[in-house]
Amino acid sequence: MPKRNDINTILVIGSGPIIIGQAAEFDYAGTQACLALKEEGYRVILVNSNPATIMTDKEIADVVYIEPLTPDFISRIIRKEQPDALLPTLGGQVGLNMAVELDRLGVLEENDVELLGTKLDSIKQAEDRDLFRNLMNEMGVPVPESDIITTIEEAYEFVEKVGYPFIVRPAYTMGGTGGGICENEDDLKEIVANGLKYSPVNQCLLEKSIAGFKEIEYEVMRDSNDNAIVVCNMENIDPVGIHTGDSIVVAPSQTMTDKEHQMLRTVSLDIIRKLEIEGGCNVQLALDPHSFDYYIIEVNPRVSRSSALASKATGYPIAKLAAKIAVGMTLDEMQNPVTNTSYAAFEPALDYVVSKIPRFPFDKFEKGERKLGTQMKATGEVMAIGRTYEESLLKAIRSLEYGVHHLGLPNGDDYDLEYIIRSIKAQSDERLFFIGEAIRRNVTLEEIHEWTRIDMYFLNKFKHIIDIERQLKDNKNSIPHLKWAKKFGFSDRVIGHRWEMTGSDIFKIRKEEGIMPVYKIIDTCAGEFESNTPYFYGTYETENESIPSDKEKILVLGSGPIRIGQGIEFDYATVHAVWAIQEAGYEAIIVNNNPETVSTDFSISDKLYFEPLTHEDVMNIVHNENPKGVVVQFGGQTAINLADRLAEEGVTILGTSLDDIDRAEDRKRFEALLQDIKVPQPHGKTATNEAEALENARHIGFPILVRPSYVLGGRAMEIVFNESELENYMRNAVKASPEHPVLIDSYLTGKEIEVDAICDGENVIIPGIMEHIERAGVHSGDSMAVYPPVNLSQEEIDTLVDYTERLAKGLNIIGIINIQFVLSKDGIFVLEVNPRSSRTVPFMSKITEIPMAGLAMHAILGKKLSESGYPLGLQPVQPGYYVKAPVFSFSKLKNVDVTLGPEMKSTGEVMGKDDTLNKALYKSLVASGLDVKDHGTALFTIADKDKSEAVELAKRFSHCGYRILATKGTAVALEEADIPVVTVEKIGEGEETLLRAIQNGNVQIVVNTMTKGKEVERDGFRIRRESVENGVPCLTSLDTARTLIEVIESMTFNMDKM
Amino acid sequence: MLNDIRYLVLEDGTVHEGYKLGADAESFGEIVFNTSMTGVQEIITDNSYTNQIITFSYPLVGSAGFNFEDSESLLPTAGGVVVREASEHPSNFRCDENLDQFLKRHGIPGISGVDTRSITKKIRTGGVMKAMITDSSDHDSTVSKIKDSTDATDQVASVSTRTPYISTGRGPRVALLDFGKKENIVRSLNHRGCDVTVLPHDTPAAQILDMKPHGVMLSNGPGNPEDVQVAIETVKGLIGKVPIFGICLGHQLIALAGGARSYKMKFGHRGANHPVKNLLTGKVEITTQNHGYAIDGNSLENTDFEVTHTALNDGSVEGLRHKSAPVFSVQYHPEAAAGPHETSYLYDQFIGLMTTEGGQTNA
User: Fold this and answer.
1) What predicted TM-score, i.e. pTM, was given to this entire model?
2) What ipTM goes with this model?
3) Which of B84, B120, B286 is opposite residue A347, by nearest beta carbon?
């Protein structure tokens, strides 16, 4: 059926900030959908609170609102814009929940807004556990024995019937938040209580555990004419029991015969027909490895992380077609956008194997609980493609950037077997690598299968990798063995290791012997139809399909998997760089390995290489394409880290020279530069061992800020107050060496200022200055930032501009630079310089409407800033206020301390904008998930050093109508200041403890500052975790608390008596 | 590491070096590709592939292994098998053997370790061609051997049953003309209660009608439909007298009997993802296909047949029905195996015809 002409304006709801369970995949889906709707001539209105996305760019929708995703704000937009229709199934669970809520509130009906795509009743039927189970029963489709419960007592009743183990799945939550497997009564008490709390409708599904079954997913689509297809099926290597987002996944499935495959395909299609899905849908099934028995696990009636993966794995653009289906078009009338020679109504055939491996944040959260279960913990994922399973797996492993390069751990020989076996059984995120180590030590596959329930097919594949390793070792310098190993995905580095050579030696041998990869097209049809889609993967075969064009080419390195410290912002910059390259008339080529992102949509660049971002893999592409140069500024630290060795191989690094990048990152050279250009920095030194560190620290004076050189997102950065802490840090937190010294800086307290600037070597454009709310010491990624700055004098602004220009020119920046300053009582100091695109680039670009990454890219390509049409220097201040607020995923990561510090912990961000600062702050707080209320109970537990500051804040909370609870010491201080306060006992000191108060929902805000010392630290940790796990905001910086009270004050009427 | 070298040589002189797989034998044949990602066992045992060398475009072949239940014929007649990788350690609860063992047991040679995508692309652009799997490294001599080889025309006779036999059921009696049938046709009929008599391909119409079947089913089979003149005559004698349902070659034979023409396609349709538009419902069906010949849509003018299904992508004829008699046919495989099950409604449709029309004709 042709598209509908009775609607004109369509509202699309995005998914908000990046959190675990809801990441960049929705930027990809949303961007595709908006563009698809525009392509069909509709007027698209978009609302999303996440500024770091491509989808919130003005090019993507006709009207863009960056506003909090709450029914309140969206209702206002609906009333203002009067859209004809709302498309809710592309913004993840957030978008979907919002649509359900707007409908419930009657907003849609009141404003005559039609819901497009899958009908609300169907959504409810798929999402509501009870309705879904009834539907499955009616269809005769097996679902595990289960019960819906709303109280703990009902959980006990369930156990009496079904027994342990059972799974807890809270209703209407994303990424399985609050869920888990209960093996015993203790688990039941904890997990069920949690699950009830996290479910917005206080409802959980308890389900008989079918852990050990194969987990299989089908990505399906259906249109209004009842045409239904399977886009892709995927097999989780990890059996049921580990969240699919945390599982290693292979596409297509490997261990099913056609009989099982068709059985599950048929039931998946039956379900979406029954549900009358119009668009994309994800069906998860559990298959008994020993029979044809299967169960339906769940159905997601919307695009999802899995659908993004399926799109990238097959080339089939699910979100794009789902959007068109929503406006009435049918699969048989739409062309397959990949081939342009066949239709969308078909099922992609792959002629390669795809592996996905999740990226976990435990390199940053070392104390986090690493056991995987039904609660998703990964922040991102990588995908890799090969013609053998081994190739796809090993490529995926080296895309992870964990410091692992192969099926094993870098220091694998150091572990004893017992530890390895324990680690495999522990079902942690590292199990894959420990399995490699176990096979290397001849543990039988049968044993490993017994422990992990991973199918023997995959275990045999893992063993094959180890076998090849051994063959390599036994056949040094054998070219046939080299060729063989390359076909199975071995990197030069790993082969070199077995041959006692370097990776470069192997690369040289390969070049001489002509053992180079070829690149094959991902065409959805296994070569059956002609396709010119420029979407490639590398493999060792005979025919190369990536024939370089005659055009001059620029290679852009992407930023790899989403992780804390390197998020979607870098994908945003990558995409803008590509657009600028194309505008300048070059061919833009992207290399990236993240299936969730916009940059790996093949329609963005002229050519997309879906390959690992390692030296070898990039060099192979350079060898094939011979580009004019490589751009490393936009792909975060991932790309920057590759620059060095690429340049050594003679590759031109475009933009800021490698030497200047080094001058910014090498401590000594940077100091020399600052002296030269007369920009002050906090007193600091480097140390390569403990003794040197102590000596330097004494010289500088405590407190000091310590961190390893070349870091990402403040990894292993700490504020250290005395010598014993420093000793501890040097021994446990870092491995200092002459090549990797530790940086030791004087820790200056003061306001933190952040500036991004663009420089062409001669002139500088500074779009704006941001002022952080949290004082220096809190990582800039975790700070709230305000534009324009509100507490800076003109003189200070002039100094910041001056320093920025001196730094940019002094470092001969060609492109973009990010600088962090501290404004202390002694003046302005530079804290950090990043000679690359930063986290704040999309935020500032959106505020100022200066496409910073694009402008930088043009400068890199030689266009002078003086010809850019923008005034040079600091840009005029934009009207209004803009606030960036961080968003965390602490509730999904057990045992992680939520205290803000120099290590970054947030996973995403939101933006609040309005006419006044307080309104903008309010929006940013609300958008970040804080419930800003004018009354309630605030719990204060404050370190001695912060007490005087906290007293002032508590007074203001109290004045606004908050009841104040405090622990003993804090309460005394508050009482002295005549603040009404209720003293609560600390942990374990009687019945009414503060933990109980938090658990019982009697506290709305926790303000807690860190106290050093073992016991208090442990107590503080428990308080903070307790609040996170109970969904109570826990503010660990008094600056954030002050901001919150200011906002509350601004919206509260004064209640002073006469 | 594999060591035993084997070659796949194409008619145009292209040589692919790979490794020995399956039987120690040489094989000539037309080289075709199949894009299905599952159902290797069903595909290799489908007698429509008689003498053909099957290239699997999906690289990991046989990862779920081979079992004693999923074969579509007892004696597979495929000429050879070309794969990127033959799974050495397949895994599935029903798995009995791996690809190599299965091919050896059935005397079928194969080759692994070759760039099957490049072969697929070559066939797509150059059309199907002849090829040879051989251990000989004298490629010039191989190419001339390929060129000298002639196409067999008796393929149907070679795979059809020689004597009739019954697969019992309590429902309608179906006479199944075996041109190289897939077992799942019999299973699909039995599953619906049919009593199936499998007949040799050259059983005359009179003899069939004497058996008083409620319906006649024409199976799939290998090769050019024009090679099976005897069956075309049989179909002519059956139309209008008994409900007929034809699949694949059977479909082509019905069309030829009705006066239409067939042609050889450039590289055919072989896979489990082929979209077909059902012109009667307006809906798309995802189908299993395996055919190198098709019915020329233009040649249907002035015949008693009308088109009911077309291939969505190239518009070729995928289904026909007789304008007045209870006769219909499809080019694809409603019995699936391997492939989607969604067109199995056609068997129900056939049962429906037999219980109404069939009952009357034979009353």
Assistant:
1) 0.94
2) 0.97
3) B286
